[in-house]
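task queued by scheduler; priority normal; single chain, no ligands, no partner chains; default sampling; output format set to C-alpha cells
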Amino acid sequence: MKFPIKKYVDLGEFKDDYYKSLKNGFDSIKNKDLIKVIRVLEKAYKNKKRKIMVCGNGGSAALANHFVCDHQKILYETKKIRPNMISLSANSALITAISNDNAYENVYSDQILQIGKKDDILITISSSGSSKNIVKAIQTAKKLKIYCISLTGFQGGLSKKIANMNLHIASQNYGIIESLHHTLMNIISQFIKNKTISNKKTKYSFY
C-alpha cells in the first residue's frame, strides 16, 4: 500500500491515514510465517553453540543493533535462555575497514566468512530487500549452510526470494516498514519470554 497518496494540509487527517496504512501493513504479516520464525529462533536461542547474526543498512542497521540488544537482554531475564547474538552493523571500525579496503557490498558477507559457521542463523533487515550487501550476505551465509531469515517491505527484492524464511510488510513507505520491523522484533522476543516464564504449552491461535 502506498502512503501518502495525496498532499495533506490537515495534521489530523494525515495522522489518521498514517495509522490506517500502518494497520494495513501490520495485517499483511502472514501469521504462519511468524510462527515458523518464532519456533526457529526459540530453538536457536536455547542452543549456546548456535550464533545469531543480524544486519541492516541505515535505519535498519539501528534496528539490527536494537534487535540484538533487546533479544539478548529480555530473554536472558528468563534465566533459561541465553541467546548468542551479534549485530554485524555494530562495529563501525570493521565496517569502514572492509568498505575501504574491499567494497561496501562486502561489509556483511566478509564478517560472515570470518565468524559464521554451519547451523548459525542470519537475520537481515532491509525495507527494499534489494541492497547489494544484504543480498550478498544471504548468498554467502547459505553457502556456509547458515539459516537465513529476511525482514522486508516494498516488493521484497531478492532477499525475500532467497532467504530460507521471510517476514514481509506489504507497504511502500519506509517509515511504516521500519516501524513494523521493530514491532515484529518485539513480538518475537516478548512472546518467547512469556512462553518460557509461563512454562505452558504454546497455543498458536491464529485465524
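post-processing summary
- The chain is about 55% helix and 10% strand.
- Helices lie at 11-27, 31-45, 59-76, 92-101, 109-115, 132-143, 157-162, 174-198.
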